[in-house]
Design brief:
This protein is mainly α. About 60% of the residues lie in helices and about 0% in strands. The chain has 5 domains: about 210 residues, no CATH class; about 110 residues, no CATH class; about 180 residues, no CATH class; about 120 residues, no CATH class; about 120 residues, no CATH class. The protein is built from 45 helices and 9 strands. The strands form 4 sheets. The protein has a 3-stranded antiparallel beta sheet. Strands 1-2 form a two-stranded antiparallel sheet. About 40% of the residues are buried.
C-alpha cells in the first residue's frame, strides 16, 4: 500500500519545501511599525484613529440584516399573502419562525464572537498606516491577521510518516519569517503550505504505513482494461447490464459497472450463466473483462472478491454461492435467505410487520424530516464558521444551499426522484444499498411470498423513507459536484454519469442513510463502530434477542446521534484527527455539539414549563390530556436527560430502572407504537422468571408478545374503527389467555378487530373506568399518541416517581389482578383525590408525601382484597393456597398426600369462578 514516503521519494523535507519564504513587504511593515515616529497629531490623535478604525470595522460587521431575508428562503416560507392561507400555511409559518429566527440568532452570535478578531485586525492595520505603511499593504496585513484561527489548528501534528516533519518545518519558518510579530501572525505562503499538508496529506496509521488523503497516486489510477476486449465479451456485458437494470454510463469503465452488478443480487448465477452461454463464453473467457493490475484500489477489493466467487459459482464450485452471499451481506446489501436460519427469516418478517402502521410511517417521516432540518441548520452554521475562521481558499456554502434537502422533500420530490434514479441507475451497488435497506433494519432479499407481503404492507413506510433518502442524496451530491465546478443537472441531461466519482456517490448515500437512522456499522471496524457492528450482529443472530431489542441498528444510530449532538460531542475534539478535520475547514463536530447542547437546554425548559407532563416523556395539552413522546426517539432522549436534572434538583429522583434507561437513553421502544404496553409486559415478564407457575406464565406472555408482532398491521384497522365505534376504543388485556400449550394467545387476540371484543377490558387500579384509546384516528394520521387526562392521584404518583409495583404488587394471577384493580380503582378515584389536594398534604416535604400516599394506597388495596374475597370466595381460596411460601406448601402437600395441589388445580379449573364480562 502506497505511503507518503513512497510518494515523496528520497528527497528531504528541506528539498521539497525549498528555501524559506520571505515576505519583504511584511518585514518592512513590521520595522516601520516598530521604528517610525508618531505623526499626524501625536500619540493621542493616532490612538483615536486606531480606536475609530476598530470601531468602524466592528460596526460594519453588525451592519445589514441579520440572518436571511424571506425571499432567500424561497418556497420554504410564505412569499405572498395567498401562501399564508391554506394547507401549507402552518408549516410555512413554522419554518419562518424556526429557520429565520434560528439563523438570525446564530448570525448575531457568530458576529459577536468574531468582533474582537475583526476589531483587533483593523486596529493593527491602522497602527501600520499611522507608522507610514502604504494603505494597500496595511489592508493586506489586516487580511493576513483574519486568517489566524485555522492555521493554529492546522499546526496540530499527527503521528506517522514525514507529515509531522512538514508541519514542524512550516511552523519553524513561520517563526523565522515573522520574528518581529507575535507568533500568530503567520505568512500567507506558509499558511497555504500548512493547509495543503493538512488537507492533502492528512495521515493515519494503517498496515505500518501512512495512507494519503486527497493526494492522487498514479499507481492507484491506472485503467483496469489493458487491451481491446473481444466483441462477444462486450456484448455479453452490455446484455447483463440491461438485464440487471443498470444504465450504461458514458465515461465509466464497462468492467467497473459489471463488477458492481455482480456484487448485487439483481441477477442470479443461473441468469448470468445463460447470458454467457448465449454469447458462447466460458467463465474464464468472460473474466477477460477484469484484467486487473496487481496494484488495484483498496476500495475495489471486496468487489473483486465478489467477482471471484461469482465466477467460481458459474463453474459449479461447491460453497461459492454461500461465500458470495456472505460478501453481499458484508457490503450492506441485505440478508440473503441462503445465509439465514429459518427462525431468523421468520423473525425478520415479524419485525417488518411491526412497522406497518400508518402511525409509524408518519412518525418516521416526522423524525427523519426533523433530522434533515438539524443537518440544514448544522450546514448553515458550518458555512458561517468557515467564513469566519477559514482562509479564502476554503469555500463555504451559501446558507440557502444548506436547505436543499428540505426543498427536495417538500417542493420538488418528483424532479428529485427523476434525477436521483438517473444517477443511481449507473451505480447498481450504491443504488441497492440506498433502497434495499429500508427502515434501518430490514433488507430486501429472497424471502419469498412472506417478504413480498411485508413490502406491500410497508408501502407507505418505504415511500416516505425513500423520499427523504433521495432528497438528502441529491442535495449532498449536487453540493459536492458544484464544489468541483460541475452541475448535476447538466451531467444527468447529457447522461455523462462517468463524470461523477463513485466516492462522491458513496459519501452522499452514507449521509442519506445516516439521516434516516440506517447507517451500517461494520463489526470488523476498529473502535466504537466495530463495537456497534458486533452488537447488531449479535442481536440479529441470538434467538430471542429481538424480543428485548427489536431494532439494534436503529438503537446504535440513536446512540451515535445522542453522543455527537450533545455536550459530549465536544469530547471528539480531544482526538488529533478530529482537530485536524476542524483545521481543514470541517466544523461539523463543533456545530453538532453546539446545536445538541441547545436542544438539551430547550428540553429542560420544556420539562420545567406548564406543558410538561408528570413523566419525562409526556407533553401536556391545555385540556389536561398528555402526549407520549417516546415514539419520537432519539429526540425524546433529550427530555429524559433534562428530566433527570430536574428531578435531582426537585428531590424526586429516587431511582432509575432498567426500563427507564432502555426507553430514555437506548431508544429501544417499539417504533411502531404497539408501544409501551407490550414493552412494559415484556420487562415485567423477564423480571418475574422463576420455576414456579409465575415463571411459566411469564414465558407464555413473552411468547405471546412475540407472536403479537405479526398482528401489528391490524392496529391501523382497529384505530380507524375505534373512531366510529366507542366499544372498539376500550383497551383489552391479553394477560388472561387463552393459553395454547406454552403460548398465551391473548396479546395476539387483543389486536384483532372483532376478536378483541371478547377479551376483558384492561383496568387501572387508580381509576374507576376501563382504559380507553384517545383520538385513535389522530394517532394514525399524525403519529401522536394522546392519553386521557390524569386524575389527581395518578398525576401525583407520576410526579413523585412512584412505580406501579409499589402500590399494586401482583397477586400472581392475571384475572385476580384485574378484578382487584376494579375494586381498588373505584375507591381510589372516589376518596384519595381529597388527600392529595388538601393543604396539609401539600405542605409536607416530598419524601413524606410519597410515604403518606403509599400508605393510603395500601389501606385501599387491603379493603379491595376483602371485597374481592367476598365476591369471589373460591378465587380467594386458591390465591391463598398459591400464595403460601414454597417450602410450606410442599410440606403440607406431602403430609396431606397431595391434597393441596389437587385443591389448587380444582379451584383453577372450577367453572364457578366466572370471568366477568368486559
Amino acid at each position: 500500500m502506497a505511503t507518503v514516503d513512497e510518494i515523496l521519494g528520497p528527497a528531504s523535507v528541506d528539498d521539497i519545501l525549498g528555501p524559506p519564504p520571505v515576505d519583504e513587504n511584511l518585514t518592512i511593515a513590521v520595522d516601520s511599525i516598530l521604528d517610525a515616529p508618531q505623526e499626524g497629531g501625536g500619540f493621542v490623535a493616532g490612538a483615536g484613529r486606531v480606536a475609530e478604525a476598530a470601531g468602524d470595522a466592528i460596526g460594519h460587521l453588525f451592519s445589514g440584516d441579520f440572518g436571511m431575508r424571506r425571499e432567500e428562503l424561497g418556497s420554504l416560507v410564505a412569499q405572498t399573502p395567498e401562501e399564508r392561507t391554506g394547507l401549507m400555511a402552518l408549516p410555512k409559518a413554522f419554518n419562518e419562525v424556526l429557520i429565520r429566527g434560528g439563523i438570525s440568532a446564530l448570525d448575531v452570535t457568530m458576529r459577536a464572537l468574531s468582533a474582537p478578531l475583526v476589531g483587533g485586525a483593523a486596529a493593527v492595520a491602522q497602527i501600520a498606516r499611522e507608522s507610514g505603511m502604504d494603505s494597500e499593504k496595511a489592508s493586506k496585513l489586516e487580511l493576513e491577521i483574519l486568517a489566524l484561527a485555522p492555521v493554529a489548528l492546522a499546526a496540530v501534528g499527527q503521528p506517522g510518516g514525514r507529515a509531522p516533519a512538514f508541519r514542524a518545518k512550516a511552523r519553524e519558518r513561520i517563526m523565522d519569517a515573522s520574528q518581529h510579530l507575535p507568533p500568530e501572525a503567520q505568512l500567507p505562503g506558509v499558511q497555504s503550505m500548512a493547509r495543503a499538508l493538512d488537507e492533502g496529506m492528512r495521515v493515519g496509521e494503517q498496515d505500518g504505513g501512512v495512507l494519503p488523503v486527497g493526494v492522487p497516486v498514479p499507481a492507484l489510477m491506472e485503467p483496469r482494461i489493458t487491451q481491446t476486449l473481444h466483441k462477444n465479451v462486450v456484448d455479453a456485458a452490455e446484455e447483463l447490464l440491461t438485464a440487471g437494470g443498470v444504465q450504461r454510463a458514458e465515461g465509466r469503465l464497462l468492467s467497473d459497472q459489471i463488477m458492481e452488478l455482480v456484487q448485487t443480487r439483481r441477477l442470479t448465477t443461473e441468469q448470468i450463466g445463460a447470458v454467457l452461454q448465449k454469447h458462447e463464453l466460458t467463465p474464464e473467457g468472460f473474466a477477460e473483462i477484469w484484467r486487473v493490475n496487481i496494484r488495484k484500489a483498496a476500495q475495489d477489493m471486496q468487489m473483486l472478491s465478489a467477482v471471484e466467487q461469482r465466477l467460481k459459482a458459474l463453474t459449479n464450485k461447491p460453497g461459492a454461492e454461500a461465500d458470495l452471499a456472505a460478501l453481499q451481506n458484508a457490503a450492506g446489501l441485505g440478508a440473503d435467505a441462503r445465509g439465514l436460519n429459518w427462525w431468523q427469516r421468520v423473525d425478520n418478517v415479524r419485525r417488518g410487520l411491526m412497522v406497518t402502521q400508518l402511525a409509524t410511517a408518519v412518525r418516521n417521516f416526522e423524525t427523519q424530516t426533523g433530522r434533515v432540518g438539524l443537518d440544514s441548520i448544522q450546514q448553515a452554521m458550518d458555512a458561517g464558521l468557515r467564513r469566519m475562521f477559514s482562509s479564502p481558499e476554503v469555500q463555504a456554502a451559501h446558507p440557502v444551499d444548506t436547505f436543499g434537502a428540505l426543498t427536495n422533500i417538500f417542493v420538488k420530490p418528483r424532479a428529485t426522484k427523476k434525477q436521483v434514479d438517473a444517477v443511481l441507475d449507473a451505480f447498481p451497488v450504491e443504488q441497492d444499498r440506498l433502497f434495499n435497506n429500508w427502515m434501518s433494519e430490514f433488507s430486501s432479499g429472497a424471502f419469498g411470498k412472506a417478504e413480498t407481503a411485508v413490502r406491500v404492507l410497508n408501502t407507505v413506510n418505504r415511500f416516505q423513507e425513500y423520499v427523504i433518502r433521495r432528497a438528502v442524496f441529491q442535495s449532498r451530491l449536487d453540493t459536492a459536484l458544484r464544489a468541483e465546478g460541475k452541475s448535476l443537472e447538466d451531467i444527468v441531461s447529457r447522461n455523462a454519469m462517468g463524470e461523477i466519482s463513485r466516492d462522491a456517490v458513496k459519501v452522499a448515500i452514507n449521509d442519506a442513510l445516516e439521516v434516516t437512522w440506517g447507517k451500517g456499522f461494520s463489526p470488523y471496524a476498529k473502535g466504537a463502530e466495530g463495537m456497534a457492528g458486533s452488537f447488531i450482529k449479535l442481536m440479529n443472530e441470538v434467538p430471542g434477542a429481538s424480543m428485548v431489542i427489536p431494532f439494534p441498528r436503529f438503537m446504535m444510530n440513536a446512540i451515535k446521534f445522542q453522543y455527537e449532538w450533545s455536550p459530549l460531542g465536544y469530547l471528539r475534539l480531544l482526538s488529533a484527527s478530529e482537530r485536524a478535520t476542524v483545521a481543514s475547514g470541517d466544523f461539523g463536530a463543533v456545530s453538532r455539539a453546539t446545536i445538541g447542547t441547545s436542544m438539551l437546554v430547550m428540553a429542560y425548559q420544556l420539562r420545567d414549563s406548564e406543558y410538561a407532563g408528570e413523566k419525562w416523556y409526556e407533553a401536556k395539552l391545555p385540556d389536561g390530556r398528555t402526549i407520549d413522546l417516546r415514539p419520537f426517539n432519539p429526540f425524546a432522549s433529550y427530555l429524559f436527560v433534562a428530566d433527570i436534572v430536574k428531578r435531582k434538583r426537585d428531590g424526586t429522583l429516587d431511582r432509575l430502572t432498567a426500563h427507564d434507561v432502555a426507553t430514555g437513553i437506548l431508544s429501544t421502544q417499539m417504533r411502531a407504537g404497539t408501544g409501551a404496553f407490550i414493552l412494559d409486559s415484556m420487562f415485567e415478564g423477564i423480571a418475574g422468571l422463576d420455576v414456579s407457575e409465575k415463571g411459566v406464565r411469564a414465558l407464555r406472555n413473552l411468547a405471546g408478545n412475540w407472536l403479537s408482532g405479526f398482528t401489528v398491521p391490524f392496529n391501523t384497522v382497529s384505530d380507524f374503527l375505534a373512531e366510529f365505534d366507542d366499544a372498539q376504543r376500550i383497551i383489552r388485556s391479553g394477560q388472561e389467555g387463552p393459553n395454547v400449550g406454552p403460548v398465551n394467545l391473548g396479546p395476539v387476540a387483543r389486536s384483532l378487530p372483532g376478536v378483541s371484543q371478547s377479551m376483558p377490558a384492561a383496568q387501572s387500579p387508580l381509576r374507576e373506568d376501563p382504559l380507553r384509546r384517545e383520538a385513535p384516528l389522530v394517532r394514525q394520521l399524525t403519529g401522536l399518541s394522546i392519553n386521557a387526562p390524569k386524575n389527581p392521584v395518578e398525576a401525583e404518583l407520576d410526579r413523585l416517581g412512584v412505580e406501579r409495583k409499589e402500590y399494586f404488587p401482583s397477586l400472581g394471577d392475571p384475572m385476580a389482578d384485574r378484578l382487584l384493580a376494579v375494586h381498588m380503582g373505584m375507591a381510589v378515584e372516589r376518596y384519595l383525590p381529597q388527600l392529595v389536594e388538601s393543604a396539609e398534604y401539600k405542605d409536607m416535604p416530598t419524601p413524606v408525601q410519597a410515604f403518606v400516599l403509599l400508605e393510603s394506597l395500601k389501606q385501599v388495596r387491603g379493603a379491595a382484597k376483602e371485597a374481592l374475597a367476598a365476591q369471589e370466595p373460591l378465587l380467594a381460596a386458591r390465591l391463598k393456597l398459591e400464595g403460601m411460601p414454597g417450602r410450606k406448601r410442599k410440606a403440607l402437600d406431602a403430609l396431606s398426600g397431595g391434597q393441596i395441589t389437587e385443591a389448587i388445580n380444582a379451584l383453577r379449573h372450577d367453572p364457578s369462578v366466572a370471568v366477568p364480562a368486559p
